[in-house]
Amino acid sequence: MTTVFIIGVFIFVIVFVLSLITISKGYKYDHTIDPIPDQQKKDSPSS
Questions:
Q1: Residue 38 to residues 10, 24, 46, 47: CA-CA distances in angstroms?
Q2: DSSP element (H, E) containing 14
Q3: pLDDT 10s digits, 8-34
């Protein structure tokens, strides 16, 4: 019974640590948006 409890706690700790690592990587990810190259041509008045 004690062995099952220790294995369960060990698995819980591994899953918990991996979850924290994944969340940390998600917050560190830098989201960027590419500019639309034709947007400046459409906004400027044509002569």
A1: 56, 36, 14, 17
A2: helix 2-28
A3: 999 999 999 999 999 999 998 888 888
